[in-house]
Amino acid sequence: MPVPFVAMETHAAPEISTPALRLRGVRKTFEAADDDQIPVRALRGIDLEVAAGAFVAIMGPSGCGKSTLLNLVAGLDAPTDGKIDISGEPIAGLSDDDLAVMRRRHIGIVFQFFNLLEGMTVRENVALPAVVAGRSRNAAESRAMDLLDLLGIADKATSSPGVLSGGQRQRLSIARALANEPTLLLADEPTGSLDSAGGLEILELFRRLHAGGQTIVMVTHDDEVAATAERIIRMKDGRIDDGGPEPVAGDGVFGVLPEDAAP
Ligand code: ADP
Ligand code: MG
User: Fold this and answer.
1) Atom number, ligand 1, closest to the C-alpha of residue 258
2) In what order do the strands lie in the sheet with 215-220?
3) Residues 64-80: pLDDT tens digits?
4) Which domains are seen in the chain, by residue range?
């Protein structure tokens, strides 16, 4: 029996012209913790549109603001300034409760070290977000099995995540991120902790999800990984790097990005 592309069947774009993601003038400044430190202007005015169904890679050196951008889009942190719309709906000004609902409806996140629940089975890990979102346990578990099938780890359904290889754990994270049929699949360095074979498997998976209509925004600092996407957006010092001239210093603090910032 062919495996259905479950992630896309029910998530047609609301309107052809409504981008899945739209950022306008997004800034994020991390205030200094101490008096002798200066604020870090992690994002310095980001304008970005991602069409529904697109597969976009965001690239740039360590510390340029990639993870900060993804966190803001995921609603895990709020911008200092600017607007973020997801499927045409602004997420600014939402209460914590409404933000949680937005996340459940629209966002699937794959982080490099995203917590899997070790006390639960692989299938329960995938079913949990759907149960939290109010689905029946049966529906959630049946969809979880479809996703595990799609990602090639159905035989691990009743195992603990602890017995999985790195690549299998990452596939489990992706299955869980897809549980609520997200508008946006966000991935931060999804191949970062994997060997090259494991990384290639994840990228092949993203290609298949994209072919099925899933919108994907993937952050990476790796050229080969980024080449999987249909569009590459380069960032530098908190801005989209369009190859134009360097912005003139003076509107804030420059050169404050630490060399050793984690990717
Ligand atoms: P990237 O993911 O591109 O490596 P980040 O978005 O993690 O970059 O970080 C961008 C800049 O913001 C870095 O200078 C980093 O040190 C700083 N930064 C990130 N998160 C925080 C935080 N919670 N508090 C203070 N500074 C932060
Ligand atoms: Mg990062």
Assistant:
1) 14
2) 107-110, 184-188, 215-220, 55-59, 231-236, 239-240
3) 999 999 999 999 899 99
4) 11-118+181-240 (3.40.50.300)
Quick one: which atom of ligand 1 is closest to the CA of 235?
3
Instruction: Indicate which atom in ligand 1 lies nearest the CA of residue 65.
Output: 6
Measured from CB, residues less than 6 Å from any atom of ligand 1 are 30, 40, 42, 60, 62-68, 257-258, 261, 263
137-169 pLDDT, tens digit each:
999 999 999 999 999 999 999 999 999 988 899
* Cα 18 to Cα 128: distance, rounded to the nearest angstrom: 30
Distances (CA, A) of 192 to 14, 135, 200, 262: 33, 33, 11, 12
14 Cα: distance to centroid of ligand 2 (angstroms): 31
- In whole angstroms, give the CA distance from residue 196 to residue 199: 5
Give CA–CA dist 235/67, Å, rounded: 11
